[in-house]
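Researcher: Let's do a round of design. I'm pasting the structure tokens now; please hold your answer until I've finished.
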């Protein structure tokens, strides 16, 4: 079952209170706390190191970011331009690779993003925990340009693969009341659980309250709105099981 609750809005227009209030909201947004000291230290490390080129830069970041992330395992590689928000709630296992210009955003101090050993994140991805969590199991591969939202809770099992451009959406807007703008009606959240050894094809969209069983294959361009049993071949919009492996 889904659970309705209101997620904290993204930082947008300048709030009431003016520039000062907006400044402190921004600090809390990127650090998870209203701590100027933490903001300066975090900003110093990321500004100094995020643009270093070549494999040498990737290695240095993998070591130096231990001072700001929740945990960083051994032999991690982080390419140029990777951005971390609320970094103390982001945990990397051993030999994690994060591609260029990817955003890894825990979003809230109560949330977390956890990447287990040997996870590969392609370039230009966005991982946003929201008010939930993202847990990516060992040896998972995430292709470039993927968007993963964890507000309702997202878990991906060992050895699974997401091709380029996959979107996982664990939240939907409530829109029952015609008298109120949709943006103020709250958000409905639902977990997404992707099992082990799952292959999700290019440009697939997976919506909230969905489980995909172990060993399943989802065809490119599908929209997954319901559970997929294990070892199924599913495709279409909405996705339907066409056969078994």
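Researcher: That's everything. Go ahead.
Model: Designed sequence:
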């Amino acid at each position: 079952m889904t659970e309705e609750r209101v997620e904290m809005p993204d930082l947008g227009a300048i709030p009431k209170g003016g520039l000062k209030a907006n400044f402190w909201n921004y600090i809390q947004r990127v650090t998870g706390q209203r701590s100027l000291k933490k903001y300066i230290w975090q900003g110093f490390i990321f500004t100094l190191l995020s643009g270093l080129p070549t494999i040498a830069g990737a290695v240095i970041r993998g070591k130096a970011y231990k001072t700001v992330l929740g945990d960083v395992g051994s032999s991690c590689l982080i390419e140029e331009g990777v951005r971390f928000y609320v970094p103390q709630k982001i945990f990397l296992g051993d030999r994690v690779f994060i591609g260029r210009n990817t955003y890894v955003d825990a979003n809230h101090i109560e949330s977390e993003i956890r990447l287990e050993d040997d996870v590969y994140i392609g370039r230009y991805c966005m991982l946003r925990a929201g008010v939930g969590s993202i847990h990516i199991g060992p040896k998972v591969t995430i292709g470039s340009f993927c968007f993963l939202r964890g507000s309702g809770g997202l878990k991906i099992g060992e050895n699974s693969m997401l091709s380029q451009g996959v979107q996982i959406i664990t939240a939907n807007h409530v829109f029952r009341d015609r008298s109120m703008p949709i943006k103020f009606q709250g958000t409905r959240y639902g977990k997404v659980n992707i099992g082990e050894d799952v292959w999700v094809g290019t440009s697939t969209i997976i919506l909230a309250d969905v489980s995909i069983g172990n060993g399943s294959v989802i065809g490119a361009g599908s929209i997954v709105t319901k559970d997929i049993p294990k070892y199924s071949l599913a495709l279409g919009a909405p996705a339907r099981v066409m056969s078994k492996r």
